[in-house]
Design brief:
17 strands; Lipocalin; mainly beta; 35% strand; 4 helices; globular
Length: 279
């Protein structure tokens, strides 16, 4: 009798062990995505600043300033004289409006010349002219990108920080699981050339090798007004993305192109590709 009981117990242990062996290993949680930094204004007050207007599929572009000053055709805007030659549509534009959460560029009679709508990525605006040409409007340095004013510390926050540690045996919060290492290509520190559509090496940047966020230096001789206005000051690499950060906190994210370069993601406006130069 005892022998039969022992044999039955042994079989049960084997079955339970086999069932446990077939249970799937717990899956590690996916790494959190990079924090999204909204760059499009939600209100009229966030619009004034510098914007990049470009004709899709071409190198034609204009860096303009949308001001908060009222004019005869909505709000005033300013741009270099060369913009009229680069983008002839600028000859018809006399001001700007902010309607339905997007910018409109209007003529002297306040009729829309370019009626922009938000792209799904929430980082740029898109408009189609009567001629059928598509135009992108990308914020470079606008009021909406300025970091918010620091909020006062809530009452009791300092006391909570200074509270004694929990007694041994008390319930503790488990730390989050570490992110799995990224196995793709990583940008190497060095000098990178900025390519725009068919124009090559319009500007050069140096990505230093210090700990993130590491400094970025725009080298002398830069011929790209958009990058100069953006004015990157640091870079970091996380979750397969190379991110350039400007002084005011707005960012440009880039992903590998497969040939050693890095392109802007999402692709909006004129082409933005960084290509490392051999030392």
């Amino acid at each position: 009798m005892r022998i039969r009981f022992a044999a039955a117990l042994l079989v049960a242990c084997i079955v339970i062990g086999a069932a446990r062996a077939q249970e799937p290993e717990p899956r590690a949680p996916d790494p959190p995505p990079d924090p999204f930094v909204p760059s499009l204004p939600e209100t009229l007050a966030g619009v004034p600043g510098t914007w990049d207007l470009s004709r899709d599929g071409s190198t034609r572009r204009c860096v303009m300033t949308l001001t908060s000053e009222s004019g005869e055709a909505g709000k005033r805007l300013r741009f270099p004289a060369g913009c009229r030659k680069a983008l002839p549509i600028m000859n018809a534009i006399a001001g700007w409006l902010f309607v339905d959460g997007a910018v409109r560029l209007v003529d002297r009679n306040v009729r829309p010349v370019l009626l922009f709508t938000r792209r799904p990525d929430q980082r740029s605006l898109l408009a189609q002219a009567e001629s059928g040409e598509a135009y992108s409007l990308v914020p470079l340095q606008i009021a909406a990108m300025r970091p918010p004013e620091p909020t006062p510390e809530p009452a009791g926050a300092q006391a909570a920080r200074e509270a004694p540690a929990a007694e041994p045996g008390a319930a503790q919060v488990r730390p989050a699981a570490p992110e799995p290492p990224y196995a793709g290509p990583r940008p190497a520190p060095g000098v990178y050339a900025l390519d725009r559509y068919r124009e090559k090496d319009v500007c050069r940047l140096e990505l230093t090798g210090e700990a993130a966020p590491a400094p970025v230096h725009v080298l002398s001789g830069c011929r790209d007004s958009g990058l100069e206005v953006f004015d990157p000051v640091s870079w970091r690499f996380t979750s397969g993305r190379l991110t350039l950060s400007a002084k005011r906190g707005h960012t440009v994210s880039l992903v590998p192109t497969g040939d050693g370069g890095w392109r802007r993601e999402p692709e909006t406006g004129t082409t933005f590709v960084l290509r490392r130069l051999e030392p």
